TrEMBL record:
The name this protein goes by in its record: Alcohol dehydrogenase
Keywords: Metal-binding, Oxidoreductase, Zinc
Glucose dehydrogenase C-terminal domain mapped to chain residues: 148-369
Domain Alcohol dehydrogenase-like N-terminal as annotated: residue spans: 27-143
Stored PANTHER family: GLUCOSE 1-DEHYDROGENASE (PTHR43189:SF2), ZINC-TYPE ALCOHOL DEHYDROGENASE-LIKE PROTEIN C1198.01-RELATED (PTHR43189)
């Protein structure tokens, strides 16, 4: 048996459980010792029973999708990994519909049917367990020097996928064709990150690296631990408490890219009205149905159409963006060696996982240490 943190939807309970130890049953599988699992808003929503689906044969769902693991055993067909390797697993798994072109092309993050499964979220147990078995094709190798920060890979993939899509969209502009292959494709453009949580701060690091003049717009007044990180990477931190959206726009002059990472739709919509011509607005989080808001639809559509703007939504990531995130973590670590570790506020033992899952402690990123 292995220890795991699980949510029981019917019983409305989260607790440490004894779970049958998984074994390799296919030659393409890998047995993993889970080292760390990041806690995010998705986990807290699942614990609040807003969503989350256990496997069909289980009354509980093992939580956790932001994981770092060590390989302990490999199937006979696995040649790319060996015991002792560090890996980060993907979250989403393809649907079974033979007509789903996305899943058949190993791009299940764009699944057409919506019947995909996700580790720790929908239909599959997650990684908040001492031992897990997974398919080798869903694992990505991690350099040993990233051991202390590699658990940040999955949240970074959100920004990685967003940036790839934004650059592909901007290639519609003839003078920017091929921008996705340039070393600094954001050079000369301004990006605003809404929110200074882990996804927002990691996104800001990515945009700075890509050459964007980057601003992070968050609630708390500076100085604080988040503003210190923003300034350390060469971006600019602005507080919503002291700078209105109108003042933000006046200061920047124009906004080419907005990356929403704050789960606060009213503010996001307010910023949307100030997006520059040919600009792109990226949504990464949903809205709270308990806090509805109103939008002037006619005005919003007029802005979008007359200014050639694009709005996209993105969640989860595919194989290429996982590998890109690992590569960028190495770049971040070399460029700002003190910054990445500062994102991790605290590590909790498994016995205290419930504490951080049921409430949102202060700080930035909280991690459950499994091994």
């Amino acid at each position: 048996m292995v220890k795991a943190i699980a949510v029981f939807p019917e019983a409305h309970e989260i607790r440490l459980v004894e779970h049958p130890e998984p074994q390799i049953t296919q030659p393409s599988q890998v047995k993993l010792k889970i080292l760390e699992v990041g806690v995010c808003g998705t986990d807290r929503h699942i614990c609040a029973l807003a969503f989350g689906t256990p496997p069909v044969d289980s009354e509980y769902l093992i939580l956790g999708h932001e994981a770092l693991a060590e390989v302990v055993e490999v199937g006979e067909a696995v040649t790319q990994f060996r015991p002792g390797d560090l890996v980060v697993p993907e979250v989403r798994r393809p649907c079974n519909d033979p007509d789903c072109r996305a899943c058949r092309a190993a791009q299940q993050d764009f699944c057409y049917t919506g019947s995909y499964t996700e580790r720790g979220i929908q239909g599959l147990h997650g990684y908040m367990a001492t031992t897990v078995v997974d398919e080798a094709r869903y694992l990505h190798p991690v350099p040993a020097e990233l051991r202390q920060v590699a658990v940040l890979t999955e949240p970074l993939t959100i920004a990685e996928k967003a940036l790839v899509q934004a650059l592909q969209i901007q290639d519609r502009l003839p003078w920017r064709t091929g921008s996705a292959t340039n070393a600094e494709p954001g050079r000369g453009l301004k990006a605003v990150v809404l929110g200074a949580g882990p996804i927002g701060l990691l996104g800001a690091m990515l945009f700075v690296t890509a050459g964007f003049e980057t601003y992070v717009y968050s609630r708390a007044q500076a100085p604080n631990e988040k503003s210190a990180i923003v300034e350390a990477i060469g971006a600019t931190y602005l507080s919503a408490e002291t700078t209105s959206v109108e003042q933000l726009t006046e200061r920047l002059g124009h906004i080419d890219l907005v990356y929403e990472a704050l789960d606060a739709a009213p503010l996001a919509i307010e910023v949307l009205h100030n997006l520059h011509r040919n600009g792109i607005f990226i949504f990464t989080s949903g809205t709270d149905p308990n806090h509805p808001f109103h939008i002037d639809t006619a005005n919003a559509i007029e802005h979008i159409t007359s200014k050639n703007q694009v709005i996209i939504g993105t969640v989860n990531a595919g194989p290429a963006t996982f590998q890109s995130a690992i590569n960028h973590l190495s770049i971040f670590q070399q460029r700002w060696p003190q910054v990445l570790p500062a994102l991790i506020t605290r590590r909790y033992p498994m016995e205290q996982a419930k504490e951080v899952l049921l409430k949102k402690p202060g700080g930035i990123k909280h991690i459950v240490s499994i091994a």
